[in-house]
Write a structure and sequence with these properties.
The protein is mainly beta. The chain has helices at about 125-130, 150-155; strands at about 10, 15-20, 25-30, 40, 45-50, 55-60, 70-75, 80-85, 90-100, 105-115, 125, 135. The protein has a six-stranded mixed β-barrel with strand order 2-3-11-4-10-9. It has a three-stranded antiparallel β-sheet with strand order 5-6-7, with no helix packed on it. A two-stranded parallel sheet has the order 1-12. A hairpin with a 4-residue loop joins β2 (about 15-20) and β3 (about 25-30). The chain is globular. The termini are far apart.
């Protein structure tokens, strides 16, 4: 008897992802099966009109607890939704369609834009995105591999190894 072909990719509860359309090569994300829609840390969110269509401009801070390497993104507005946060508060959010690359696979996800400065992860990957063929193993992390050491150090707010941290040493 033939076994059915299973196309699901096993992912850990946290993974490194990239946002190819936004020139963000590394972003630590939490895979959250309790969240319907994915969410991205965004700031200075501003709606504008482009050829009669609603667009949104926003900034991304790719590193946790850091404003370094800000990326400014412009995308069409896909929707506006009332979203209930994990704390029970509702908030009107912009929704954009974003390409996300995770575990070597690229897919399009509906992503809400919100300030996640106080949260541990800059991005949540919700159930709708996970339906693109991912199964979450809640006991494992980074099944797609770890980011390079320099990226992990920057994400923790540390300077790259070998970087001068004392201006006097540069003299």
């Amino acid at each position: 008897m033939k076994q059915p072909v299973h196309s699901n990719t096993i992912a850990g509860w946290r993974e490194w992802v990239s946002l190819p359309q936004s020139d963000v090569p590394w972003l630590k994300a939490k895979l959250d099966t309790g969240a319907r829609t994915s969410a991205l840390h965004a700031f200075d969110i501003e709606e504008f009109d482009r050829d009669g269509d609603a667009w949104v401009r926003f900034g991304i801070h790719p590193w946790q607890r850091s404003a370094d390497d800000t990326v400014i993104v412009e995308m069409p507005v896909h929707d506006r939704r009332l979203i209930r946060s994990s704390s029970g508060h509702t908030q009107q959010r912009y929704v954009v369609l974003m390409a996300v690359k995770m575990l070597g696979r690229e897919f399009t996800a509906e992503v809400t834009l919100t300030n996640r400065d106080q949260m541990g992860f800059r991005m949540l990957i919700g159930r709708q995105a996970l339906r693109h063929g991912f199964v979450v193993d809640s006991g494992r992390s980074f099944l797609g591999g770890r980011a390079p050491k320099e990226v992990r150090r920057r994400n923790r707010g540390r300077p790259a190894e070998g970087a001068d941290t004392d201006d006097a040493s540069a003299a």
